[in-house]
Write a structure and sequence with these properties.
It is a single chain. The protein is mainly α. It has a domain of 107 residues: Four Helix Bundle (Hemerythrin (Met), subunit A) (Up-down Bundle). It is 58% helix and 0% strand. Helix 3 packs antiparallel against helix 4 and helix 4 runs antiparallel to helix 5. The N and C termini lie far apart (140 Å).
Length: 192
């Protein structure tokens, strides 16, 4: 009996040392040859022109970022910064789609939100600043939704981007008008 156990143990050890390489290869999954399909790129010129659909897209993105900032103001500085930058970006895109008079109206709201951005980027969100900025954000949210929703603004969308620019470049102040310049003039004396 001991001989048989010893004999079986020797056979098991010998089998494990020799291995079953052919069996192992038989059950190993082989890599499939992937045929590369050549990429075909057809160049097509797309003309992007102002449309209510494009305005609606920017308006929806603005609403999303605005509501997120209102809900989470003060939780995370990086998130607040990202939200306010995206809000201003979407509003500027909306303004570029509008005729000049409506673009100027939207510009007033953008200036209010830029002041909020300055406070957020300077990381000066004290309790007072946070409540004030929250009030400004909620007010601008209501006003923009009321006055610049897609249904009310449809007739004020430009026909093409070649029309009058929505963003007027700011005129540079002459050197004489800048404070600290050597060409400042003293107030004229009243000669009588």
């Amino acid at each position: 009996m001991k001989r048989w156990i010893f004999f079986i143990a020797v056979i098991c050890v010998a089998a494990s040392l020799v291995g079953c390489d052919s069996v192992q290869r038989k059950f190993t999954r082989k890599k499939k040859d992937v045929k590369k399909v050549p990429m075909v790129v057809q160049a097509k010129k797309y003309e992007k022109k102002p449309s209510p659909e494009l305005y609606s897209k920017h308006f929806s993105y603005w609403q999303s970022w605005q509501s997120e900032l209102i809900q989470r103001l003060g939780d995370n500085h990086k998130k607040d910064s990202r939200c306010i930058e995206e809000i201003l970006s979407q509003l500027n895109d909306m303004r570029n789609l509008l005729v000049q008079e409506k673009a100027d109206e939207l510009g007033k709201h953008i200036k209010e939100l830029e002041e909020v951005r300055d406070v957020i980027l300077r990381e000066q969100l004290s309790q007072f600043n946070m409540s004030h900025n929250m009030m400004v954000l909620e007010r601008e949210d209501r006003l923009i939704k009321k006055d610049f929703c897609v249904s009310k603004i449809r007739s004020f969308i430009k026909k093409s981007f070649d029309e009058e620019p929505a963003v007027q470049p700011q005129a540079e102040t002459p050197a004489a008008a800048q404070p600290g310049s050597s060409q400042e003039t003293a107030p004229a004396e009243n000669k009588t």
